[in-house]
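Before surveying the methods themselves, let us examine one representative protein, pairing a chain with its fold in token form.
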Amino acid sequence: MREKGISQYYLLKNGIDSKTLDRLRNNCNITMLTLEKLCTLLNCTPNDIVIFSSDSRF
């Protein structure tokens, strides 16, 4: 977001709600729909947002 000059306010105004932003800040799960919205708003791919780790907690 910093690299692209996009603020949290911009995300809020464009379909990402505050609960989702809280989930992202706390490294919680998000839906694929949210990931798609983020990629569209940030003009990026899921690989730019998501990091897969072997330390998964299910």
About this structure: The first helix runs from residue 8 to 13. The chain has a mean pLDDT of 89.
